[in-house]
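Lecture notes, continued. The same structure-token format from the folding unit now serves as the input rather than the output. Read the line below as a description of shape only.
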């Protein structure tokens, strides 16, 4: 007599929510299929370090197959999901890779960039969500200094100034981290490496439509973060939105600024897969799926949505934030609900998700950061050491932690950034994005 096949759980997305759910179900009586269009799990909080040449891609990413190699109840599929059929409980894969039936489904496909109705800006102001994005930004930043050097050698000071102007749009944690690190590169890393330009003349401008940087932090830490940025040489411009971006620069109101390197950190939109759950799913304006308290899709208890794709209001009226800790907690909660269902524990199987807020961290530059941990508020060097320890601790794999520590120690004492290699595509030309 053949054994009864195990229920199949399909997990879409190998980010924090998806991976934490899969790992939490290592001993569950489930056949798990993890589907992702990338073959790796990415530690996104350190992605800006790859974009600014402080770390290499393997330092903050690990192959999903390697992470899950010892978990016998899971298989990994490298593919992009193009369709979800709730009626037949089946997902469709790209490039004729077929489809996969499921008994339970977790959609944790994350988020992408949002340009607030100006999608044409994307070609000129790349965002930062993937390794490809990080390598594109690194190439643009490093090539900008090369173009400035060439322009200065040709006697074209105006063109050189445009290449030495860097603008970061959006002053959340990613924007603050990018701007602070760009200022450090200009002020310290590139000293004495050029013959016709002084990299210290580079302008780094951080632009925020709202009234302050790091809007999710307390006002006192916002002010300290701004002061630390300005000490690094960053021009902080708040209270005015960018009104246009093209290949030659950007506009603030009616004023045009020549700039060939604009980086986008201002908006987030949910993965397009959220729309595949309609009309059963109700979406918010950002395309995120409104989920039931247990993170399931209303009317479809076999389907869960977690991470940046899910929107859920906490008992205090605030939405669960789109952060890595929240995504991990959501993935672990889905795993608990599924284990309870399989064990027939009705009350636990309907348990509502409760987000545990451990606080906010943001780094600004060398020995500069802000930390807000449930009333414990730190800024400056102490906050920076706390931020460093927390990020190294949460990296997956001993090798990753060791390499990141070595690279950061080297950068701390020398100001050098070891990953300053331009590759992966043609460098931008003058007048191009």
């Amino acid at each position: 007599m053949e054994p009864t096949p195990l229920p199949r759980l399909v997990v879409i997305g190998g980010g924090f929510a998806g991976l934490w759910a899969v790992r939490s179900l290592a001993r569950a009586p489930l056949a798990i299929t993890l589907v992702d269009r990338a073959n790796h799990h990415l530690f996104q909080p350190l992605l800006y370090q790859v974009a600014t040449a402080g770390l290499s891609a393997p330092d903050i990413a690990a192959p999903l197959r390697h992470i899950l190699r010892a978990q016998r109840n899971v298989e990994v599929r490298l593919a992009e999901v193009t369709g979800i059929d709730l009626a037949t409980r089946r997902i469709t894969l790209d490039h004729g890779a077929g489809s996969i039936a499921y008994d339970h489904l977790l959609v944790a496909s994350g988020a992408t960039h949002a340009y607030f109705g100006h999608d044409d800006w994307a070609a000129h102001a790349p965002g930062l969500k993937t390794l490809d994005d990080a390598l594109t930004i690194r190439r643009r930043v490093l090539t900008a200094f090369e173009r400035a050097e060439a322009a200065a050698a040709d006697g074209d000071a105006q063109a050189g100034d445009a290449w030495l102007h860097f603008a970061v749009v959006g002053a959340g944690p990613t924007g603050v981290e990018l701007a602070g690190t760009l200022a450090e590169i200009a002020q310290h890393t590139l000293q004495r490496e050029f013959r016709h330009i002084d990299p210290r003349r580079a302008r780094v401008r951080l632009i925020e439509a709202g009234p302050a940087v790091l809007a999710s932090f307390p006002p006192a830490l916002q002010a300290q973060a701004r002061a630390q940025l300005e000490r690094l040489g960053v021009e902080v411009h708040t209270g005015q939105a960018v009104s246009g971006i093209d290949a030659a620069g950007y506009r603030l109101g009616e004023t045009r600024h020549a700039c060939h390197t604009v980086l986008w950190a201002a908006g987030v939109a949910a993965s397009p897969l959220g729309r595949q759950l309609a009309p059963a799913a109700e979406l918010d304006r950002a395309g995120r799926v409104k989920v039931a308290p247990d993170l399931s899709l209303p009317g479809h208890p076999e389907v869960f949505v977690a991470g940046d794709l899910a929107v859920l209001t906490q008992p205090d009226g605030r939405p669960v934030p789109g952060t890595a800790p929240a995504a991990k907690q959501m993935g672990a909660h889905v795993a608990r609900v599924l284990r309870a269902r399989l064990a027939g524990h009705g009350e636990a199987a309907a348990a509502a998700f409760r987000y545990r807020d451990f606080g906010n961290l943001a780094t600004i530059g060398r020995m500069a950061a802000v930390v807000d941990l449930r009333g414990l508020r730190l800024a400056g060097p102490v906050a920076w050491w706390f931020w460093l320890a927390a990020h190294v601790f949460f990296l997956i794999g001993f090798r990753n932690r060791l390499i990141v520590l070595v690279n950061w120690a080297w950068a701390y004492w020398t100001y050098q950034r070891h990953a300053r290699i331009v590759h992966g595509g043609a460098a931008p030309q003058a007048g191009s994005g």
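Point for the exam: The radius of gyration is 23 Å.
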